[in-house]
Amino acid sequence: MLRAVLMTSVITGVFCAVFAAFVDVITDALDMWVVIALAFLSGFTGSLFAQVVLKRTT
Asked: Counting beta carbons within 10 angstroms of the beta carbon of residue 39, is it exposed (0 to 12), middle (13 to 18) or buried (19 or more)?
């Protein structure tokens, strides 16, 4: 169980790091609320990506 939790966290972290690098390129032209929305999107999609990679159903 601990291994699965750590693996999900690592995959989500890597996804968010890549996403953050992309956001960093376009952030200067965006308002703060858009940056906050992008941060949420990063975490949300990163978690979904990790679950798909690990093929979790619950």
From this structure: middle
Q: Is the pTM of this model over 0.85?
A: no
Please list, in sequence order, all residues whose beta carbon lies within 8 angstroms of the beta carbon of residue 4, skipping any fewer than 6 positions away. Answer: 54
Residue by residue, pLDDT tens for the chain (58 residues) are 678 778 887 888 788 778 777 877 777 766 778 777 877 887 888 788 877 887 765 5
Tokens 């966290």: give the residue: 9
How far is it, in rounded angstroms, from Cα 36 to Cα 38?
5
What's the one-letter identity of residue 7? M
Dihedral (CA of 3, 52, 18, 20) sign = negative
